[in-house]
Every structure is written in structure tokens, then in C-alpha cells.
Write a structure and sequence with these properties.
Elements (H helix, E strand, L loop, with lengths): L1 H20 L3 H16 L3 H61 L2
Helix pairs in contact: 1-2, 2-3
Amino acid sequence: MLDAIFLAATSIMVLLGGMLFQTLRAERSIVAALNQSIKFGTPLAGSLRMLAAEMRAERLARFEERAARLPVLLTVPLMAFILPSLLLVIGTPLAFRIIDTLGRGG
């Protein structure tokens, strides 16, 4: 009986001690869910399902935020590379036609 109590106490201390070295929010959330399950006897599966759903939603929001910034970041390459090429393709026949027209004398 005392071994079980000692093991439970040391596992909680290990989880709390490990919480100090964790930098990711997700890791801290998992450790908190494990601690809550150990301390209060709440079902771990439900906590982990809810935690996984939150992490998925957070990751999706991060991806959507990065995707929203993409058009702004692509305007510079568009103007630097594609626009001059497009103007060259469209403007060259026009310039040749103008030079030809002026060369004939009107």
C-alpha cells in the first residue's frame, strides 16, 4: 500500500517537475490533463480527446492565418518577375509596329 502511495506521489512530482522544462503549450496541456486524471480520477480518454480537438483547431487557425498572409507576400515576386515579362511580351510587338510605321514615313 505504501509503495503505491509513494509511486503515485513520485509520478505526480515527476510530471510537475517535467512541466518546468516544457516549452510547448501542447506539452503543458497534456501534462496538466494527466495530473488532473491522477489527482481527481477523471477519465483520461475524454480529456485527451478534448485536448486533441483543441490542438487541431489551433493548428488549423494557425494555417489559415499563414494562408491569409500569402497573397501579401507574393505581390513583390509578382511585380518583380512576372509583370516585366508580361509587359515585354505585350509591348514588343507594339514597339515593332510603331518602329515599322515610323520607318515607312507615316
